Amino acid sequence: MESIKKFPREVWRNNRPKMTFTLHPDIVKVVRKTAKEEGLSFSVVADEAFFAGFKAMGRI
Predict the structure, then answer these.
(1) For the segment 43-57, what is each residue's pLDDT rounded down to a tens digit?
(2) C-alpha closest to that of 12 among 44, 56, 59
(3) Measured between alpha carbons, how far is 54 from 60 in angstroms, rounded to an integer?
């Protein structure tokens, strides 16, 4: 698989409310792999993925 190019970070990162939820194991694997490849934390990759997904759905 080709290395994923660095994605632009669009999510504001400062003191924010925390949220806990359960993700499908396949999604967790993808987020962890992406975080490792990009040198970012799990939470940054998850934030960016949620943001991109909601933006693509027209929710943001």
Answers:
(1) 889 988 998 999 999
(2) 44
(3) 6
Mean pLDDT value across residues 2-28:
78
CA–CA gap between residue 60 and residue 29 (Å, rounded): 25
- Give the dihedral sign, CA 21/25/27/30: positive
Asked whether the beta carbons of 44 and 35 are under 8 A apart, the reply is yes
Any idea what the Cα angle at residue 6 is, between residues 24 and 57, rounded to 5°?
50
On whether the CB atoms of residues 43 and 11 are closer than 8 A, the answer is no
CA distance 60 to 47: 13
What is the Cα–Cα distance from 42 to 37, expressed in whole angstroms?
11
Structure tokens at 49: 């993925």
Q: Where are the domains of the chain?
A: 25-56
